[in-house]
Each structure stands twice: as C-alpha cells, then as structure tokens.
C-alpha cells in the first residue's frame, strides 16, 4: 500500500516541519486538500502555500481539488507541477477535456468520486486516467467516520481498471486507519490518504508503517 498523509490535519503554524517529518517518516505522496468554500463548506489553501509545501516536500504532491470551476484551479496550480491533480466528477461538465488539459502540463490526472457516485460513471474516461480517488467520507473535513460502502465500490472499480487501464491507481480518502487498511488492500486499493490518523499518532513513522500493508 502506498501512503499519502493529508496535510489538512497537520499543525499549520509549523507546516514546513510537518511536511519534512512525514517525508522523513516514509510517506509516498503528500496529499494536499484544496477547498474553495463553494463545492465544500470549508476553505483551505491556495497556490502560495502549496508552492511552499512543494519546495519543502521530498515526496511528490497529490493535489485534491474540491472546488467549483476546476479549470481555473488547474491553471492556478499547474505551474507548481504537482505529480497528480485530481478533480471531482460531480463538478465537471467536460471531464475528458480537463484530463487532457492537466496532462498537457506534464501532470498526472485523476478523478475523484463522492460517496454516492457510481464507479461506472467514469468507465469511458478510465483509459485516460492516472488515478481514481474514491471518497470514503463526504469531502470537506478531516477526522470523519469511514463510510464502508467504498469497499464494494473499490471492488467494482478494480474490475473496470484491470480491464481498461491496469496502470491507473486506485486511491481512497477519508477515515482511513490501521483498522480498515487491510480490507481496503484486499478490495484493490493502491494508495490510502490518511490525515488525522497520521498526524494524531505519537510517531508519524509508526503510523505510516502501520498503513503499508
Ligand atoms: C476530506 C479530505 C481528506 C481528509 C482526510 O475532504 O479530502 O483528505 O483530510 O482526513 P482523515 O484521514 O482525517 O479522514
Ligand atoms: Zn483529500
């Protein structure tokens, strides 16, 4: 399992050291939650802060957009050259076009599905995707309870992924911890996002290692 700690649960008064600490502790990606106060009822960070995070991080950035007007935000974050930019399918009229736009910057493209969204809804986009992110909470906040239906959704997505684009990663985000990570692995998840579980743990290294099942 690859592990992407979400810096949403980090100590923002000490963000540089927090980013260094999770990278030293062996994370695979640094997960950055961008919220605009419209698509979700919360507001987080913009390109100024994300650029500082990118400079500090020894690991690639995985930028999760939770915004209206995806194209505007893709253009805003593209110069920072994160490894991945993922956007919500529920908020995009022209996802195929936006995937090509993200890739035109040399950035890997991913789509995020809210808890209610069918995995089959992206069947005809899968061959163009580098990642599919399944939300296991309602987007907007860290520290929420894991929604178990994501297990069944992962299994269905994995069948599609294995047939259409075996290179595409399946990521799950929200309420992940050492208790549910094995079931996620067995269902076919490649990457877990974990915010509060990692940042509330006494040892970031132990927390990350406990997720590498
Ligand atoms: C929620 C975010 C998540 C969040 C996960 O909208 O997308 O990345 O930070 O936090 P935990 O792991 O605490 O559920
Ligand atoms: Zn996220």
CATH superfamily: Aldolase class I
User: Main β-sheet, in a few words?
Assistant: 8 strands, parallel
Class derived from helix and strand content: alpha/beta
**CATH architecture annotation name:** Alpha-Beta Barrel
Number of domains: 1
Could you tell me the radius of gyration in angstroms?
16 Å
Number of strands: 8
Strand coverage percent: 15-25%
Order of strands, main sheet, comes to 1-8-7-6-5-4-3-2
Helix content: 25-40%
Show the helix and strand layout.
Layout (H helix, E strand, L loop, with lengths): L1 E4 L9 H10 L5 E6 L11 H10 L4 E6 L3 H8 L6 E5 L6 H10 L3 E6 L17 E5 L14 H15 L4 E5 L7 H7 L3 E4 L1 H4 L4 H8 L2
Parallel strand pairs: 1-8, 2-3, 3-4, 4-5, 5-6, 6-7, 7-8
The chain binds D-xylitol-5-phosphate and zinc ion (ZN).
Zinc ion binds next to strand 2.
Describe the structure.
The chain is α/β, with parallel strands linked by helices and 213 residues long. The chain has a single domain (2-211), classed as TIM Barrel (Alpha-Beta Barrel). It is built from eight helices and eight strands, in the order βαβαβαβαββαβαβαα. The chain has helices spanning 15-24, 47-56, 70-77, 95-104, 150-164, 181-187, 196-199, 204-211, and strands at 2-5, 30-35, 61-66, 84-88, 108-113, 131-135, 169-173, 191-194. It is globular, with a radius of gyration of 16 Å. The model has no long low-confidence stretch (mean pLDDT 98). The structure holds D-xylitol-5-phosphate (DX5) and zinc ion. The site of D-xylitol-5-phosphate has 21 residues, from strand 2, strand 8 and helix 7.
